[in-house]
């Protein structure tokens, strides 16, 4: 997916977060958003996801030369953040089948084929609310990075992952399709190193 961000500004209670941001992110980009804590990295990512309106400016989205409306954007985006969650009253197989019914994870005909790629021994009968924060983060990343949506947005994706979890995560990044656009908001140098372009918000 191509993104054209034009003169984007955001303010809360008349306090500017960022102003006049203009950048083009072509299809297949591996793009980093960096900046100090409170600089607006997460805010920018929420706006790109369609979950938050800018104060000024706009973003144009296009897929294979065709415009994508903001109303339809949710069909094409995965957004993973520490503050986002899944339905924690479900077990992991139930969550998988829910996503399948929603038209996601189409490459996996059965739960075990997808769960194997998480590279972690999840108990299939436990509710997700009983998982540790690192286990939940692995599930969210597995739902996003093992799917085929054209735009993937990750906010501090390494949060709560241990060393093995981060190695698994970086392995998935390396296996994304060339036509999938990845945007990571982070100050982690290893995460940023997986991107070839980026901006710093101030």
Protein model, in words:
With 202 residues, this protein is an alpha/beta fold. The protein has helices spanning 41-49, 92-101, 111-115, 133-145, 163-174, 189-193; strands at 2-12, 15-25, 30-34, 56-63, 66-68, 77-80, 151-155, 181-185, 197-200. Strand 1 and strand 2 form a beta hairpin. The protein is globular.
Keyphrases for this structure?
four-stranded antiparallel beta sheet, alpha/beta, five-stranded parallel beta sheet, 9 strands, 6 helices, 202 residues, Rossmann fold
Number of domains: 1
Question: Largest sheet, described in full?
Answer: 5 strands, parallel
Instruction: Give the name of the CATH superfamily.
Output: P-loop containing nucleotide triphosphate hydrolases
From the N-terminal CA to the C-terminal CA, the straight-line distance is 26 Å
Number of H- or I-type helical stretches: 6
Question: Under the CATH scheme, which class?
Answer: Alpha Beta
